């Protein structure tokens, strides 16, 4: 497939039907386009296709054939990029390329219709509605877009006329040349995948990874599940693995020093208090979670009632 990227003709293989963000980042090396949500929500991967903003994580690469693509690297000298640096419209800068690409498209539309005038906050907010800044630099972003549209950054200052930007790394972040951990690919780099259990409570009997490097993260008992529930595994740090206990069939209904309930093969101690208002099931609602004694130390908690 052949298409134009930042004014240069490029040819890539898209037989495996990748997303546009994969082609731009991994195959063309234009890492200014960031892949964050992969769902078209945050706007960090925005590119321009024939001048129109597109989220590249949802755009099939095959749709770029014969089109004109502009990434943030092609807008490094754009008035919007200079305005973002000059107005300190960024912090970490990870989402900034998407903002710059979208704001540059808005800049062109605004200037074509209104000339070098300052847009209102509502117009800027509507144009950038599909972008998220987790650092919260929105006030600076509003100032930067308004100043760029008003013509404050039309001319690039040179030499001694160039003012100092609030952040020394701002030009790299607004131009897409800043490198983050996800942009580095040294030789021999391995990609890790964390496999989580689809079951809320299960005993993992075996794990297979084929010929791939494998790092087990399960506890010694091989039980996975949330804590604080009587049906979960024992949290005794040194004892042997125990079978899961079923949920208790009855609960104490008032506060007492040593209330008991029988759950499974070993007695389990819990302290519960009841509210005056009962839930729909009629069972008292606890006001605080229980403290459990592991089976190995159950004898220290007393004996269950007959």
Salient structural properties:
2 domains, five-stranded mixed β-sheet, two-stranded antiparallel ribbon, 9 strands
Helical stretch count? 6
The backbone outline, from C-alpha atoms, is: elongated
Low-confidence stretches: 226-306
Q: How many E-type strands?
A: 9
Largest sheet: 5 strands, mixed
Specify the helix fraction band.
Answer: 10-25%
Strand order of the largest sheet: 2-1-5-3-4
CATH C-level name of the largest domain: Alpha Beta
CATH architecture of the largest domain: Roll
CATH topology category name of the largest domain: Ubiquitin-like (UB roll)
Number of folding domains?
A: 2
Rg: 29 Å
CATH-defined superfamily of the largest domain = Beta-grasp domain
- Structural category is alpha+beta
CA distance, first residue to last residue: 79 Å
Q: Please state roughly what percent of the residues sit in beta strands, choosing from under 5%, 5-15%, 15-25%, 25-35%, 35-45% or over 45%.
A: 5-15%
Mean pLDDT: 78
Spell out the helices and strands N to C: EEHEEEHHHHHEEEE
């Amino acid at each position: 497939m052949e298409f134009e990227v930042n004014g240069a003709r490029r040819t890539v293989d898209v037989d495996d039907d990748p997303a546009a963000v994969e082609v731009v980042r991994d195959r063309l090396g234009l890492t200014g386009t960031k892949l964050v949500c992969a769902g078209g929500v945050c706007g960090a991967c925005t590119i321009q296709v024939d001048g129109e903003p597109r989220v590249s994580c949802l755009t099939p690469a095959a749709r770029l054939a014969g089109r004109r693509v502009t990434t943030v690297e092609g807008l490094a000298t754009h008035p919007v990029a200079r305005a973002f640096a000059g107005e300190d419209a960024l912090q970490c800068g990870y989402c900034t390329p998407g903002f710059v690409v979208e704001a540059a498209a808005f800049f062109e539309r605004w200037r074509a219709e209104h000339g070098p005038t300052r847009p209102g906050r509502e117009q800027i907010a509507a144009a950038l509605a599909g972008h998220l800044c987790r650092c919260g630099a929105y006030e600076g972003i509003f100032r930067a877009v308004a100043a760029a549209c008003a013509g404050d950054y039309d001319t690039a200052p040179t030499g001694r006329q160039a003012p100092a930007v609030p952040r020394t790394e701002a030009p790299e972040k607004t131009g897409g040349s800043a490198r983050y951990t996800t942009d580095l690919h040294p030789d021999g780099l391995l990609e890790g995948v964390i496999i989580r259990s689809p079951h809320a409570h299960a005993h993992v009997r075996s794990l297979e990874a084929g010929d791939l490097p494998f790092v087990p993260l399960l506890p010694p008992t091989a039980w996975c599940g949330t804590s604080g529930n009587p049906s979960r595994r024992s949290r005794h740090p040194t004892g042997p693995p125990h079978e899961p206990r079923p949920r208790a069939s009855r609960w104490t209904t008032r506060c007492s020093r040593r209330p008991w309930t029988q759950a499974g093969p070993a007695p389990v101690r819990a302290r519960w208090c009841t509210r005056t208002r009962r839930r729909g099931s009629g069972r008292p609602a606890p006001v605080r979670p229980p403290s459990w004694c592991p089976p190995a130390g159950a004898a220290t908690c007393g004996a269950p009632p007959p």
